[in-house]
Amino acid sequence: MKKHLFPLFLLLLGANTYAQRGFFAITGKNTQSIDFNNLREIEGTSGTTGRVIFSADITSKVFSQKRNRIVVEDKQSYSSSQAPAMAALAYDFSDNRLVYMPMFSSNIYVLNLETKEITLIENNVATVSSCDINSHITRMTAGYDGNIYAVNNSGTQFLQIQKKNGQYLVHDLGMIKDEASNGKNSFTALETGFGGDMVAGADHNFYIFAASGNVFKISIQDMTARFIGKIAGIPEHYSVNGSAVNDKGNVVIASAKGAPLYEVNLETLQAVQLPGEKDLHIYDLASKYFVNNKSAPVNFSTIDIYPTRVDEQFINIRINNKNIKGNIRMNVFDLSGKQVMNENLFIKEETINQKIYFNNLAEGAYLVNITDDSGKAILNKKILITK
């Protein structure tokens, strides 16, 4: 869990239509035990709290996907939508929903931020036991592909939550293993790798911020965890329980122990305290941003488009390839195949680095097509305009 030794969890959810530049959060009550209080907004730059979205005190309406009907839950149960212990949260930016899990349960809940209706996904893929801290799923985030991902404490289950034809499907992607170079900083050990939270990168990999302050990069290709360092600049006994990427591309971390939020540079792992709230009990954080997505790319290919999740009405097109010359053109198609936009790109010294605005396009998915002087497609990439 995050860890079972640590008192409270707060779930900061990713920025949504209400908080364009902030997070959502699961917050705990001001006690020394695990005690869910509410889901709320938090401003991602200052660390100040915003409005409450959903709380432990309201009467919730829960619809069971499996039983196809409204169900009545016991709020004090470890397997309810308002369970006392919460540890994992993600923001589904494509549907404007919060996805979360009680700490001691395999149930998955989806909160519609517009209607406040909750969908229960009875998940029989995860094997969660309340008495087995290895099995507790404590890290969750939206992936760059739009799916939701979650990992248990010991890394033995890496779940993908996918929406298909209106139904949520859960897949177990397998076990995450330590890289040999990790040594004593094991991802699968209680003191060094358990708990915390995770964020996603534009390279389709993930970064896990363990409760200990250790940071691991998770490679999807070979399902390995590589220790990349320990966060510097936070108090010695600071328990990292939430993490989310802000609009500057940095990671904001939060604690279940009633402590300030910190902004962490992922390259240096140096943390700087945010000026906002000083004693929030935060169990988890989530946002709509991704590592290496908002800032200039570091290891992008010579032809690329970023970001692909467009909430500020523009994309950047970068072409740095001496073999690509002449009249470069951008075409945009909706999912029916209709062309909705086209524009010539300007090449300068064998490089294009241009910002393209989509002020007149409605929210939704589009295909961006880049062609060279001969009309040959050199890049096709799907984008999602959220506004």
Automatic annotation (TrEMBL):
Lineage per the UniProt record: Bacteria, Pseudomonadati, Bacteroidota, Flavobacteriia, Flavobacteriales
Signal found in the keyword field: yes
Keyword terms: Signal
Leader sequence residues: 1-19
NCBIfam families: Por_Secre_tail
Domain Secretion system C-terminal sorting: 305-384
SUPFAM superfamilies linked to this entry: Tricorn protease domain 2
Protein name: T9SS C-terminal target domain-containing protein
Origin: domain of life: Bacteria
